[in-house]
Design a protein that fits this description.
The chain is mainly beta. The protein has one helix and 32 strands. GO terms for molecular function: 6-phosphogluconolactonase activity.
Length: 416
């Protein structure tokens, strides 16, 4: 399916809103910002669109909230700690029906918390500490008493060619579908670090990495599992921040103790289209129906005359891009089907709701959260459903949906 076919996927926002209006419960979004705050946004149908309103603000993850993770009603927030170069915090909050956050605890970590992931049957968080060249493990069994149990320091023997690559820069932690392995794209080291996670002790043991070309700067990765081609296949997709590349690998399990990778796909982040010179990707995720891959691209200014997401302002704006790919479940090969305006500048973070029909995007430099309506079957983003201004430089956005119950929605398309 090619980009030229995308225009045929059109449907009405009115039909969507009518269906949403029958639901008794309202969703919320949590948004972090470098101004020190976590904002709660109420999301509700209103007159053919979605009405987004900031209902509360909490500064318990200051000074630089960077990454949010919602697990069984507890919101965890990593502070990047720019003004505190020798320390950062991981904070925990109880969520409430009103959207107000109640702080439970925080624990001091090293520095530069930019990403986290749950593992160990919900008892542990792995934390990527970009500034300290470290991955830490936090015991979260008691969210009111967080405890660091392991910190792994990285050193590089070979430096990359870019200024950001003078030291190791772990930018993400992501677990495979078995939860037995953790991967960490190292932007400084031009590799994806691989760890075995002990199922009993939850200790992380580093193994041989997946290496990428010098100067790539791997940022984020996502696992994809296919069961529709005769036998189960697992793929890994990776975006590189510095070289603007998108890679796909089939993942091989070697006796459940080590991983190996066979490359099945390679393109620029814009697929068959030219890559804007100033672009660099940010987020990557899989749709809940397991058919599409989405990438957000910052600073590409691909759209010079885009619809303003502010309903009170009709002035057209310059916008960066959201890219959607169709995934061939049998081969792992990707096919670009849409490039869509992100609604503003620097779409640093994005997350699909559980159904996959709404995509929330945190625009870092536009200080705005935009929610897009999306057709789940085709994967096509159709239009802006609603937006709201949020103070500061935005860093992350996550959904809180009542229908989720006690599950954890992982932005990489998995339910844990």
């Amino acid at each position: 399916m090619h980009l030229s076919k995308a225009v045929f996927y059109v449907s009405s926002i009115a039909a969507y809103v009518a269906a949403e209006a029958t639901k008794a419960q309202t969703a919320m979004l949590y948004v972090s910002s470098y101004d020190g705050n976590i904002s709660t946004i109420n999301v509700a149908p209103s007159q053919g669109h979605l009405q987004l309103n900031v209902t509360s603000i909490n500064n318990g993850c200051a000074p630089d909230p960077s990454w949010l993770l919602l697990h069984k009603g507890i919101l965890f927030c990593g502070d990047e700690g720019f003004p505190t170069p020798n320390s950062s915090i991981l904070a925990s909050f109880n969520t409430t029906p009103s959207g107000k956050l109640q702080q439970l605890s925080n624990v001091t970590t090293l520095n530069g918390n930019v990403n986290s992931a749950i593992f160990g049957n919900g008892t542990m968080i792995a934390l990527a500490e970009y500034g300290a060249c470290v991955i830490s493990v936090i015991d979260i069994q008691n969210p009111s008493a967080l405890k660091v149990t392991q910190s792994i320091k990285f050193n590089l023997t070979t430096l990359g060619p870019n200024r950001q690559q003078s030291v190791s820069r772990p930018h993400q932690v992501v677990f495979d579908p078995t939860q037995m392995f953790m991967l960490s794209p190292d932007l400084g080291g031009d590799m994806v670090r691989v760890f075995h996670a002990d199922p009993t002790t939850h200790h992380l043991d580093e193994q041989s990495p997946l290496k990428v070309p010098a100067g790539s700067g791997p940022r984020h990765a996502v696992f994809y599992t296919s069961k529709t081609c005769g036998f189960k296949r697992t793929y890994l997709y990776l975006v590189t921040e510095l070289s603007n590349m998108l890679y796909g690998y089939e993942v091989m399990y070697n006796g459940n103790m080590t991983l190996s990778f066979n490359k099945v796909y390679e393109s620029g982040t814009f697929g068959f289209l030219p890559i804007p010179n100033t672009a660099f990707p940010s987020e990557i995720l899989i749709s809940p129906n397991n058919q599409h891959l989405l990438v957000s691209s910052r600073n590409d200014t691909h759209f010079g005359n885009s619809t303003n997401p502010d309903p009170k302002n009709s002035t057209a704006i310059v916008s960066d891009s959201l890219l959607t790919y169709y995934i061939d479940a049998c081969t792992g090969v990707l096919d670009l089907i849409q490039v869509y305006p992100a609604g503003g500048s620097y779409p640093r973070s994005m997350e699909l709701n559980r159904e996959g029909n709404l995509l929330a995007v945190a625009l870092q430099l536009s200080s705005r959260v935009v929610v897009f309506k999306r057709d789940c079957e085709s994967g096509i983003i159709e239009e802006i459903a609603g937006s709201v201004a949020v103070d500061g430089v935005l860093t992350n956005v996550v959904w809180d949906e009542p229908a989720m119950g006690n599950s954890t929605y992982d932005r990489r398309g998995l339910l844990a």
